[in-house]
Amino acid sequence: MNSDGTSKKFLLIRILICILLCIVTVLFVGQINALNILSQNYMLILIAAAAILCGLVSVLVLFAAKKTGTQIACSVLAVALAAGCGFGSFYVAKTGNMLGALTAAHSGKIANVVQVYALKDSAIKSDKDLEDKKIGVVKNVNAVGITHLLNDLKDKGITVKEEQYDNFGPLADALYDKEVSAIAINQVHESNITHLAKFTDFKDKAEVIYSFTYYTNATSAADAVTDITEEPFTVLINGSDSRGGLGDTDRSDVNMLAVVNPKTHVVLLVSIPRDAYVKTYCDPEYDCLEGQYDKLTHTGIHTYNTTAKTIEELMGIDINYVFRANFSAVVSIVDALGGIDVNVAPGYAVDYFYTNDMFGTEYGVEEGVNHLNGEAALCYARERYAYTEGDFQRIKNQQEVLTQIARKATSPEVIARYPALIDAIEGNFWTDVSQDEISELIQFQLDQMPQWTFISYSLSGTPDNRYCAEAYGNASVVILDQNTVKFADKLIKAVQSGDSGKEITDMIDTYEAPAPDYGEAETEGNNQVDPEYSAEYEYYEPVQEPVYNEPVYNAPVVEAPIYTPPVVPETPAPEPDPVPEPTPEPEPAPVPVPEPTPEPEPVPEPAPEPSQEPAAVTQQPAA
Questions:
Q1: CB-side neighbour CA atoms (13 Å) of 241
Q2: What are the residue ranges of helices labelled H in 387-456?
Q3: Which CATH class is domain 231-508?
Q4: How far is 294 from 276, CA to CA, in rounded Å?
Q5: Residue 206's closest CA among 136, 113, 131, 153?
Q6: Matching InterPro entries, A to Z (predicted)?
Q7: For all residues of the chain together, what is the average pLDDT?
Q8: Right CATH number for 108-215 from 1.10.10.10, 3.40.190.150, 3.40.190.10, 3.90.640.20?
């Protein structure tokens, strides 16, 4: 009886596990379908695979497995699959929320903040203290915002006296000299005061005692294409100088056009120097100094729409979409992708980036391939003082960082890093590409897995020092060579008309630049001066100045080899040869004494003659 009860309970548990698996699987498939990132064919395959897997596991859990151990193993498998589907559902939902936030920013309102400053040592500490006090403003600058502020104070029953000044220098002087009790400016114009050499201590002496926020419509200046997977389109990649979230009115420090042809799989990146001296264009509601010459980066003060419209007029093109990112985005995205590899050309190695000050790090790059984390990638993309070409080399570095991010983000390995990538994107980007268009692009990438060709080109010019309308003073600028503008337009048209990546690369490689042509910026911009301008209010850009040290050749230190005599085993020293005894000198040989000459013997007397008898003869026998 107990055995039967236990079996029934275990069967009930297995049934519940199978039901849970089916519910979670259906939820997972439904969320992917709602996200619309898979084509119809892939969606049908996913549905079929999910149904087969769910049915097969359920059969194994409920019917096929007879032994208790096998049933438990199949149940564990079902729970694991349910957990996997639940985990997938969570990130699919998170992706949907991220895309919604990414694309919803442009459809809302743009916040504009007007701030009232008073000296820290004054009695003005809140808006109530402004009653019957003088407030200084710059005439014809942010007139819409100042009007909103004054009306707000009036509605609160606070009466103030408005004093107008010609530019930010005299305005700050009036506050310092206590001619006015407070000054009112848009928050983005604070740097117009702090960047004046005379008022670099402004933040130490003044404080915000009241602020008022009003909103303008965040309408896009871009004109979307009909089919983003079939038609060429142009995106303005706009990098904000913000390091903590994206503001609506941040300076535009990175301005890059991405011209995309989805049929030829070619992406052309055209960079424009942040200090390009351009004529400003904007819609009236953005309250810019239209028709005045200024740095391109300053156009972002009046929203990215002003930057987009100014670039359209400069280049003679239509921008279809805007994509914005801040500094923090580079760090987060690169780290989420596991780092990127950049190739440093010979002669462009940097031992230490000046931009390390952002993080207190000591990054640099060597010749050849360098693997960079997020902070190193941002230092590399922001560095200009370490290079002879300055901002022009920085642009090339930015293009390479963006290219490597795009390549890694469209590679299969991104799947394993997807959760971290989603977290990195949230809050660091916005775009006016619709969520449906983003889904279409994802479908296009998954269906075709195209190999994109990235090509880079940069506008160039000559450095100068000119009067900038937003700065109300002189600042360093780049007078663009109009020949580079015209050639960029030619490249853009080539991409849009369907030229291959090789054809466009050949155009760049064989291009022979004519003599520089600086256009009307050389004449009209040069004549643009403030009648009240004085050297007293010289514009100061708070940047770290590089210290150039003449390179010194340091010969490599080579230690001289030390001679070590070979080790010879010790042998007993031979006994010294005995010293030979000295040979005695020979005694002198005696001098021979000649013997006396003997006297000659006497001559014998002759013998007597023999007789005449014959001699006897001896006869020998014959042989």
A1: 15
A2: 391-409, 418-425, 435-448
A3: alpha beta
A4: 8
A5: 136
A6: LytR/CpsA/Psr_CW_biosynth, LytR_CpsA_psr
A7: 81
A8: 3.40.190.10
